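Standup notes, structure subgroup. Blocker cleared on the cytidine-5'-triphosphate input:
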Amino acid sequence: DPVWVVIPAAGRGSRFGGDIPKQYLEVAGRPLIAHALEVLLSHPRVAGAVVALAADDTRWPNWESLWGKPVLRCHGGSERADSVLAALQALPAGVADTALVLVHDAARPNLRLGDIDRLIAAADAHADGAILAAPVRDTLKRADAQGDIAATEPREGLWRALTPQAFRRGALAAALERARADGVVVTDEAMAMERTGLRPRLVEGREDNIKVTTPADLALVEFLLGKASQ
Ligand code: CTP
Ligand code: MG
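Run returned:
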């Protein structure tokens, strides 16, 4: 069955700073969002994408298709979850409630086809969906109010959530709507699903699938994408 892609790209990049929203910064000759869209739409299971843009966005290059597949757009909202929900509502009418949707950050350009393959396979097999994630590698410290170490937390069983995250369209929309109605800001899609009692599967993904949050991250993806294109 065809899979659709949703790209929330309506953020302001406040932690990154600067004049250009980070999803439009150019690396290896293309904006970050273009890297993400290219690889996702090149996957044979993917039928098309919806991109959620800020209402005052002036930089979207007006792509209407990529790899011969439609790229639709909609207005995002004030929180990431609002942008994802708007994009789900902008999917073509023919997309089934049970169709898989891959939600992927616009600012996460170094995604590889192998990770998309394994994520889709896990989500096909698991009713509650699946997400790419990486095990925590560092030792975790809890701080007290002065910034001194209060405790060392066990890291066993802890994962960092990455994207894409893959869920059935109807179940994800219902979970995001419920979080909104409850006044809870969810920081990823899986969190909305978990709140409704579902248990998405963790799929170990590549650690170099990093999100550009600060300028230091940009230097890293410059290195990674430069290497990949050689
Ligand atoms: N995003 C969105 N709509 C929002 C907020 C975020 O579509 N209201 C998108 C961002 O454009 C980005 C992804 O969600 O592609 C991940 O969010 P994040 O890394 O937090 O990006 P920003 O919100 O832009 O950055 P910051 O939090 O530093 O302002
Ligand atoms: Mg943000």
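Discussed briefly. The chain is about 30% helix and 25% strand.
Next: hand off to the docking folks.
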